[in-house]
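Methods — Computational structure assignment.
A single polypeptide chain was analysed. Its primary sequence is given first, followed by the predicted tertiary structure written as structure tokens.
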Amino acid sequence: MDEKVLDKYIKGEATKAERQQVIEWLDISEENVREMMALHKLHDISLMNQPLVETVAEKKTDNLEEQQGRWRKIGIELLKITAVVLVMVAIRFFYQTGEPGYQTLYVPSGQRAELTLPDGTKVWLNSHTRLIYPLSFDKKRTVELDGEAYFTVVRNEQPFVVKTGGLDVEVLGTEFNVKSYSVSSKKKVDLLKGSVKLSGGVLGNKSFCMVPKESVSIVDGKLTRSRIDDYDYFKWKEGLICFHNESVGSIIKKLELYYDIQFVVHRTDFLNESYSGKFRTKDGIEQVLKILQLEHEFTYVKDSNLNLITIK
């Protein structure tokens, strides 16, 4: 990648074609993401320390201790570069420019992210989730979601609309959770506060409003309405995966989704057995399996090359 193009991108001076070129380059490997984050941090540090560098150059009479103090500060900032890069590699999500005026935030498997939209609305994104949103809400408040997200919407006369592949969720100001992965036929909306209007997608020309503490699930076009009975589930925002009296088979499907891994189960006798527990997402999928082994007898083999776990 041409360093001049990267420099223009970091300074916000890149053309649309150059921005697209950088995005494609970032998609190639994590090494490129690390390089971009390091360059971005170096740019910030250079701006922050510019007066300091000039002072060092001009004041040649400064004693050695003062100069060492200045360079120690720069050294600390350089160490921060490493820290930031390592965090970014661990989180493995980054912003990229989509259409003009829009941003795309993607959260890979096993991770989560939190952001505040231009209107002040707070959004938490679960693993394997993509959110497309405008840089400003001048004319409309509309976002596109593929995955799972929890919204705390700032009340506004302008409706806030979440578009998914199979459902549109419209609100003015409320708190709700939307689960709509393109790889799954199941769509789910949980309303904690306020009200939302569901329409479009699998509902066709129909639409209806939900009431607080209501959960709506749509599986293969069939709609089911019920009351929210497990608020621990929403602790995924805090990095916790919670299961309440859930079948092992259902747990495995969620693990496949959250960690983007495939399971092959040779033993099916225990899939209908239930389990309740909480796990930290960052501890990884094997920690979940090891805890499950304490109550259910099974062994497993993980093949990292095939991204496959076989349960025997």
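Note: Residues 44-61, 76-100 have pLDDT under 50 and may be disordered.
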